[in-house]
Amino acid sequence: MQKIRWGIIAPGNIAAKFSAALRQVDDAVLYSVASRDVEKAKCFAAQNGFLHTAESYQDLINDDNVDVIYIASPHNCHAEQSLACLRAGKPVLCEKPMTVNSRQATEVIRVADDNNTFYMEAVWSRFLPVYKRIRQWIDNGDIGDIQLIQASFGFNFPFDPKSRLYDPNLAGGALLDVGIYPITFSQWVMQDQYPASISAVGSLGSTGVDERSAVTLQYDEGQIATLTSTVLADTVYDAWIIGSRGKIKVPMFWCAESAELITGSRADMNVVDSAYLPHQPNGYEAEILEVHRCLAQQELQSPELTWGNSLKVMKIMDEVRDQLGLTFPFENQ
Prior knowledge:
Elements: E1 4-9, H1 13-22, E2 28-34, H2 38-48, E3 52-53, H3 57-62, E4 68-71, H4 78-87, E5 92-95, H5 102-114, E6 119-122, H6 129-139, E7 146-154, H7 174-189, E8 197-204, E9 210-218, E10 224-230, E11 239-243, E12 246-250, E13 258-263, E14 270-276, H8 284-296, H9 307-324
Parallel strand pairs: 1-2, 1-4, 2-3, 4-5, 5-6, 7-10
Antiparallel strand pairs: 7-11, 8-9, 9-10, 11-12, 12-13, 13-14
């Protein structure tokens, strides 16, 4: 089995979780790390078992020993760093959101295509094994015709204007950080069809980023998704797919390990099937394995999360931001 040598741009909390999963994938090699702070990169490499530390991002990109790069930087850096990798012919797995807006996303996709280089957005939830069981229930007609989708993701993060989450210069706010999960879930359930209508309400905080929002998506046959996100409160993390004959409950939908198929009336609901497919070790391994599969098959994009799928989510978030009046300072430069 061919070994895949990974490089990581921007070592931080998410990169550490990603590295923990890498260590459990047999054909993955934790090769190199790059940071704006070389000492931070060296410390991360030592703590997480990487073989090498790059002197700069560009040194990592130019290293022939690196087969694929995982980008874990703040949102505002995703487009620039992805483009630098792709123009050098280096395959990329970029942490969600793939960019800040659909204009940037379109450019990333164009450059990946022009350079015949693999690119995938790291939306790990779409690759979790339990999602395959959920899809089977939907496709088998076990809940009838989909009517409603409900999902919420929020956590109580104390206000700090210097924090990434509240800094508009780093593309902070709830939508791009956690609101992308409910939107992505709805899009996955609806097999990535673009909504017929998008409606959003929310509030911007003192630093100008969105602190909470509610989004309603309506699809071509009338199906409605109600989706909320916030950085001001801990929400209920269960998602629901509600059909004409039953419903599916997905606990902790964004990192799901289980799901329940429920039928019956409101007064007499019955769990008729369930799935429990735990992470091995933390869930990130599923997207890593898909990257390895794509590279082995010389596929430029994953059929499980195509460039078009990611671009649709970015366009939905553009529309939500437009309705909320949310613009980041660097977008006007």
